[in-house]
């Protein structure tokens, strides 16, 4: 008890003594840590910016307050633009460096007034409102930096938008005096109205060394592909005139021409078309009975009748955009704003932002020599495609043409994508309006090496009226272990699908989708019901494939998710004697495509088929009820540069039980049409105008007919064949 009491009397006394000794130390340490955390949090989350937030506007930097710079007569003059310049030869990407945001930094030179030795300015207009708006938008963007040492791209405050207002020699001397000019390396100039009388060159005449040019009237002769940026000619009416958005659809006039300075030969041809087609074509000109001024610029006349411009553009399905003295025309912007499909007749013209925008979706480009055939060409475009083009045209204007801000930031984004290609915007992000959602669909080109086994595949069965055969197909497919869902596309609008109680009872979800039109392209529509990456497209009469053969095909697809993996193979090759493509369905060891009557593929290709593939290919397929599988083969091969894979079943892929007289493939014209579909130059001779120069089917022999794999189901080996 004594020992315990002694310990108790001393133990409690030692503990407080210990706290007192170290209390100051612990309190000091805790205070330092706490203050450090608070300071770190304030630095991270308190609103601040490393860079200056000074705006580049006339309000803060008046032209009259800008310092005056005199140009000696002997000032150096840059060399004329180097046509051989490319990003890897005339642009120093190392100035851009790496940054976590993958965004270039742009520096705008301070505003200065350049005059010659006599005090005459280099420009008759100084800084235009449009160029000020452009520089202000850039200074407000995430691209801007006021630290010249951090800049990747330099933009002069010298306004060269309109060459007519410039003194060429003196402007070039002013550029050469910029502190970081270095022969124009990493400098960007904006010009919308190049050239001058009498030649009207298609690029800025100001000598500019290696500077990049964002130009509004490039031709194929002056445009340095992958270096310069083709921009639109801004229309001031975009800001001055508000037009209510008009929904796509038929309009009062079929074709409208509203430009006033058309060459007399073109106007004579348009008048001849007007005589032939009457009220379908409205041919407007400037109003001679109105006094010149801002008001008359917004009026157009035809035989004394006055029309408001640009409002009249909304009353036409197609609007003619002809070249004038310059290739680039502000009328293109007005037409797009009105949701009118532009019909562009300007040979060699580089369309605005054509590096990223797919103009085939929003316009019709016709060679000038085919102006007389314009009405016939436009009449051949289906109404549904015209509506899609009207919608796309207005969206192009809204996203990329509507303001100097939109034009400037789009230009910088294109350059940014060149410098950071791994973070560049995709085709879909540039060209698809927000209503088309691709965010939930991944491209198979960037998937993991082998997609996971768990999700399985969705079987899509296209059917019309063969219920008994359909039910047999459903029953057999339901036995495949990896089947996740079965989707039946009911393509018969005149007959309802069977009652729910009559359908086979299977262990996976079974969905039936009723289509509005009987079209073969319905089998490749990106239905919301398709939730798996893998899709099995199968016809309603393919009853000879067993469940283990289908499972094996799915396993092969998992190793090659960016390819078509199918069972029935076909061959197409060039017949030198006949001078045309030949389509073979005989049973040989040579394979160049697999039919989608029984094939696995990634659902991403449904989106490409529906939204990216040129519309007239789908229209041909739906009109002839044939060749949708050929179109899909060509699409996948052109996108991936890879051949399809054929999976051989245990027995020959024939259908002795398929005796239905209404089968599409039993029609005597079936094989003839499929061979005809391969004759690309013949099929798309005039629609070449609609497709542009890079049709999906060009270069088949190079991209499509090489190194085809034949995967044997029975032997489990791969046989590679070189067809050509």
Automatic annotation (TrEMBL):
Pfam families registered for this protein in UniProt: Exostosin_GT47, Glyco_transf_64
Domain Glycosyl transferase: 457-675
Single GO MF descriptor: metal ion binding
Domain of life (superkingdom): Eukaryota
Catalytic activity line of the entry: 3-O-{[(1->4)-beta-D-GlcA-(1->4)-alpha-D-GlcNAc](n)-(1->4)-beta-D-GlcA-(1->3)-beta-D-Gal-(1->3)-beta-D-Gal-(1->4)-beta-D-Xyl}-L-seryl-[protein] + UDP-N-acetyl-alpha-D-glucosamine = 3-O-{alpha-D-GlcNAc-[(1->4)-beta-D-GlcA-(1->4)-alpha-D-GlcNAc](n)-(1->4)-beta-D-GlcA-(1->3)-beta-D-Gal-(1->3)-beta-D-Gal-(1->4)-beta-D-Xyl}-L-seryl-[protein] + UDP + H(+)
InterPro entries in alphabetical order: Exostosin, Exostosin_GT47, GT64_dom, Nucleotide-diphossugar_trans
Membrane topology: Single-pass type II membrane protein
A single Gene Ontology CC term: Golgi apparatus
Transmembrane segments: 24-46
Cofactor or coenzyme needed: Mn(2+)
Pathway stated in the Swiss-Prot or TrEMBL entry: Protein modification; protein glycosylation
Enzyme Commission designation: 2.4.1.224
Subcellular compartments: Endoplasmic reticulum membrane; Golgi apparatus, cis-Golgi network membrane
Signal peptide as annotated in the record: none
Subunit structure, as described in the record: Part of the heparan sulfate polymerase, a dimeric complex composed of EXT1 and EXT2. Could also form homooligomeric complexes. Interacts with NDST1. Interacts with GALNT5.
Family: Belongs to the glycosyltransferase 47 family.
Function field: Glycosyltransferase forming with EXT1 the heterodimeric heparan sulfate polymerase which catalyzes the elongation of the heparan sulfate glycan backbone. Glycan backbone extension consists in the alternating transfer of (1->4)-beta-D-GlcA and (1->4)-alpha-D-GlcNAc residues from their respective UDP-sugar donors.
Full protein name: Exostosin-2
Organism: Amphiprion ocellaris
């Amino acid at each position: 008890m004594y020992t315990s009491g002694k310990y108790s009397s001393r133990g409690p006394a030692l503990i407080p003594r210990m706290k007192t000794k170290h209390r100051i130390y612990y309190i000091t340490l805790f205070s330092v840590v706490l203050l450090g955390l608070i300071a770190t949090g304030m630095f991270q989350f308190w609103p601040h910016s490393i860079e200056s937030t000074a705006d580049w506007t006339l309000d803060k930097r008046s032209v009259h307050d800008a310092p005056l710079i005199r140009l000696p007569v002997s000032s150096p003059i840059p060399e004329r633009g180097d046509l051989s310049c490319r990003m890897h030869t005339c642009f120093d990407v190392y100035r851009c460096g790496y940054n976590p945001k993958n965004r270039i930094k742009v520096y705008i030179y301070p505003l200065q007034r350049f005059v010659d030795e006599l005090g005459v300015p280099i420009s008759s207009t100084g800084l235009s409102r449009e160029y000020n708006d452009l520089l202000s938008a850039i200074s407000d963007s995430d691209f801007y930096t006021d630290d010249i040492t951090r800049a990747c791209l330099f933009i002069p405050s010298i306004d060269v938008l309109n060459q007519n207002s410039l003194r060429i020699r003196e402007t070039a001397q002013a550029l050469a005096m910029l502190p970081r000019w270095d022969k124009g390396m990493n400098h960007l100039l904006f010009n919308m109205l190049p050239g001058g009388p009498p030649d009207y060159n298609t690029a800025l005449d100001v000598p500019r060394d290696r500077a990049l040019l964002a130009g509004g009237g490039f031709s194929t002769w002056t445009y340095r592909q992958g270096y310069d940026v083709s921009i639109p000619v801004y229309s001031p009416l975009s800001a001055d005139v508000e037009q209510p958005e008009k929904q796509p659809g038929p309009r009062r006039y079929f074709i409208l021409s509203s430009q006033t300075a058309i060459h007399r030969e073109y106007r004579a041809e348009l008048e001849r078309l007007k005589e032939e087609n009457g009220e379908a074509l409205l041919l407007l000109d400037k109003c001679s009975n109105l006094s010149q001024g801002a008001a008359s610029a917004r009026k157009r006349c035809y035989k004394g009748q006055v029309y408001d411009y640009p409002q009249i553009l909304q009353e036409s399905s197609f609007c003619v955009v002809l070249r004038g003295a310059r290739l680039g025309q502000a009328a293109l912007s007005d037409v797009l704003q009105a949701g009118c499909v532009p019909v562009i007749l300007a040979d060699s013209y580089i369309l605005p932002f054509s590096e990223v925008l797919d103009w085939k979706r929003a316009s019709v480009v016709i060679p000038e020599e085919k102006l007389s055939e314009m009405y016939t060409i436009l009449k051949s475009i289906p109404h549904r495609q015209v509506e899609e083009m009207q919608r796309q045209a207005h969206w192009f204007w809204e996203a990329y043409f509507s303001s100097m801000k939109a034009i400037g930031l789009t230009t910088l984004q294109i350059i940014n994508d060149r410098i950071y290609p791994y973070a560049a915007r995709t085709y879909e992000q540039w060209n698809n309006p927000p209503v088309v959602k691709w965010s939930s669909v991944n491209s198979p080109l960037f998937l993991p090496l082998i997609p996971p086994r768990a999700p399985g595949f969705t079987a899509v069965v296209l059917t019309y009226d063969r219920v008994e055969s359909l039910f047999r197909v459903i029953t057999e497919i339901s036995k495949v272990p990896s089947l996740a869902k079965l989707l039946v596309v009911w393509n018969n609008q005149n007959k309802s699908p069977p009652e729910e109680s009559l359908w086979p009872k299977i262990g996976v979800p079974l969905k039936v989708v009723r289509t509005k039109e009987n079209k073969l392209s319905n089998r490749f529509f990106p239905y919301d019901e398709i939730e798996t990456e893998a899709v099995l497209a199968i016809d309603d009469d393919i009853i000879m494939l067993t469940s283990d053969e289908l499972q094996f095909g799915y396993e092969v697809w998992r190793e090659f998710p960016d390819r078509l993996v199918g069972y029935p193979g076909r061959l197409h090759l060039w017949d030198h004697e006949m001078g045309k493509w030949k389509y073979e369905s005989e049973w040989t060891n040579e394979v160049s495509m697999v039919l989608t009557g029984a094939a696995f593929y990634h659902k991403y290709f449904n989106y490409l088929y529906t939204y990216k593939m040129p519309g007239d290919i789908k229209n041909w397929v739906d009109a002839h009820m044939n060749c949708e599988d050929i179109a899909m083969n060509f699409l996948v091969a052109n996108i991936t540069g890879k051949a399809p894979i054929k999976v051989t079943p245990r027995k020959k892929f024939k259908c002795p039980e398929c005796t239905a007289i209404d089968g599409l493939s039993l029609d005597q014209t079936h094989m003839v049409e499929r061979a005809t579909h391969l004759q690309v130059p013949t099929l798309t001779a005039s629609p070449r105008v609609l497709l542009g120069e890079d049709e999906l089917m060009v270069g088949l022999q190079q991209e499509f007919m090489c190194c085809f794999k034949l995967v044997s189901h029975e032997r489990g080996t791969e046989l590679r064949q070189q067809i050509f």
